[in-house]
Design brief:
about 20% strand
Length: about 325
């Protein structure tokens, strides 16, 4: 029954009561008047209670709606929490500060990445709690190896051993006699085009730290390459490189360790750091202008550049013979 029905019913009763009173005059007994008056009063009470009930119902319905709205909040919180758990972590924050780095026994692991056996080396990391909170998605095809949170690349991996201890590992190279560097760019660093590289930082080689060697380094200084065309040129050359694996120092042409030769290596050499759009810093690549070749730590050597590509690289890096 609606509030309006109650009002209409009460109005009809009032009219009937008045008609009988007018028609009967004083012949209507006092008991009847009291009786009808009592009934009218009851209807007033019922009407008031009904209105109160409907108001309460509306309030209850409104309250239920508010409760329902609040029940959505935990779901939002879960989603937000999930996003927080997978938030981007800068890998630099996982590395131990320089002052805390101590000499440790070299530890290496062979991890299957696609068709390759990738060699990873353990690096001195920050507090284990930081590593635990930085766990990302599992590296496909591996057991207990995880990406850093927010990363698609495999430059750094977090490992959990049987004792539930966390450690940080860095990619070194593929264990293969020959492979295209483009596979490294894509499978490890998640670089598929020059647009994935924001800038390239070029520093002088530092294999000679004598006074003269340091003077040459200061004279060369640091070059930051941000021009998209220059980055595109370097990227194209890098994708065409063939890697011959580690322990190939004889290929690189840095055999002469005389003072004059070392100073020439500094003048003609550059250490590169590729800063990616994902926020990674790939600082393993080096260029030896003395032989026109790229190389890495552990004597990882690449094929000698064609004269055309060599001129492009050395012009951009500011190497003058």
């Amino acid at each position: 029954m609606k509030k309006e029905d109650l009002f209409e019913g009460f109005a009809d009763l009032d009219d009937q009561l008045l008609r009988r009173s007018e028609e009967g005059g004083f012949n209507m007994s006092w008991k009847k008047i009291v009786k009808w008056g009592s009934m009218a009063a009851c209807f007033v009470i019922i009407l008031g209670t009904g209105i109160h009930f409907f108001n309460d119902k509306e309030m209850y319905s409104s309250t239920q709606q508010n409760v329902a709205d609040k029940s959505i909040e935990p779901k939002k919180t879960i989603v937000e929490k999930d996003k927080q758990e997978k938030k981007y972590v800068n890998t630099e924050s996982l590395l131990a500060p320089d002052g805390l780095i101590q000499k440790e026994t070299l530890e290496i692991s062979d991890i299957q990445i696609g068709k390759y056996h990738a060699l990873y080396t353990k690096v001195v990391s920050n507090d284990e709690k930081i590593l635990k909170s930085s766990i990302g998605d599992p590296a496909e095809g591996t057991d207990k190896w995880f990406r850093v949170s927010g990363h698609e690349d495999l430059q750094y991996l977090i490992h959990i051993n049987k004792k539930d201890e966390y450690s940080l590992w860095s990619f070194a190279y593929f264990q293969s006699k020959e492979y295209p560097y483009n596979d490294v760019l894509q499978k490890i660093y998640n670089i598929y085009s020059s647009d994935d590289i924001e800038k390239i930082i070029s520093n002088p080689a530092n294999m000679d730290n004598t006074d003269e060697g340091k003077r040459i380094q200061d004279e060369i200084g640091t070059t930051v390459i941000t021009d998209k065309k220059d980055i595109e040129k370097i990227y194209k050359i890098l994708t065409g490189l063939t890697c011959y694996g580690s322990d190939n120092w004889n290929r690189i042409g840095l055999g002469d360790d005389s003072e004059t030769a070392m100073q020439e290596y500094v003048r003609m050499g550059r250490y590169l750091s590729l800063e990616t759009a994902e926020g990674n810093s790939i600082d393993s690549l080096k260029y030896a202008g003395i032989s026109g070749m790229f190389y890495e730590y552990n004597g990882v050597a690449y094929h000698k550049l064609k004269e055309k590509d060599r001129k492009i690289i050395e012009k951009i890096l500011g190497i003058h013979k």
